[in-house]
UniProtKB/TrEMBL annotation:
InterPro entries: Mut7-C_RNAse_dom, Ub_Mut7C. Signal peptide: none annotated. It holds the Pfam family Mut7-C. Residues 90-231 form the Mut7-C RNAse domain. This is Mut7-C RNAse domain-containing protein. It comes from Streptomyces narbonensis. Residues 4-78 form the Ubiquitin Mut7-C domain.
Amino acid sequence: MNGPEIHIRFAPGLRLFVSAERRSGHTPVTTDGASSLGHVVESLGVPLTEAGRLLVDGRTVTTAHVPAAGETIEVEEVARPQPVPGAPLRFLLDVHLGTLARRLRLLGVDAAYESEDIGDAALAALSAQERRVMLSRDRGLLRRRELWAGAYVYSDRPDDQLRDVLERFAPTLTPWTRCTACNGQLSDADKDAVRERLEQGTEKTYDVFAECVECGRVYWRGAHHARLEAIVSEAVREFGGATAR
């Protein structure tokens, strides 16, 4: 590439996306003189979903800005909490984030999840169709132009993934209101109405039940409730929301 030379610096949180030589201070980049700043940033490895303000010689520009020779570029991280305008806040998770999806649903957050790999194009199209924020660790997926909105999940540990998403987007938490299996809404269920779907031990031991209005799955405070309660209590304590019941 033989064109204008600019100098670019990435915020600390973005440096995992770029090559080692670009992780400290401003580094030179030779552009083609026609590509947008958004294209330049992505070509260096940073998905635009992760880029916040773009500053050129101290002034804010859009991704459409075409860099000129000698400009100094600052690429900031997205602001937290990150506003998502234009639709109710809801998410779409790829096949690798099943545990995160279940934990978000446990907290009452609308989190659609594809349990099979339907491909990046289909996921991006679904994000646009349903106006959901795409959560993924796949940088290629997050670069797709069809996406309505997206976010990179920085950790491979479910505890850290959950904390990252809650901190970044600050969704309203309404624990125990969503089906962890299908994302449907839960409603209180009379024991007699669900009795035929209960095992004998469950029927004798428990009296309070909830039922998914979408898939019909029945919930009660079983053996795993204490572990789930701990996840809910910690999230509510740190990020706010309805009191766990």
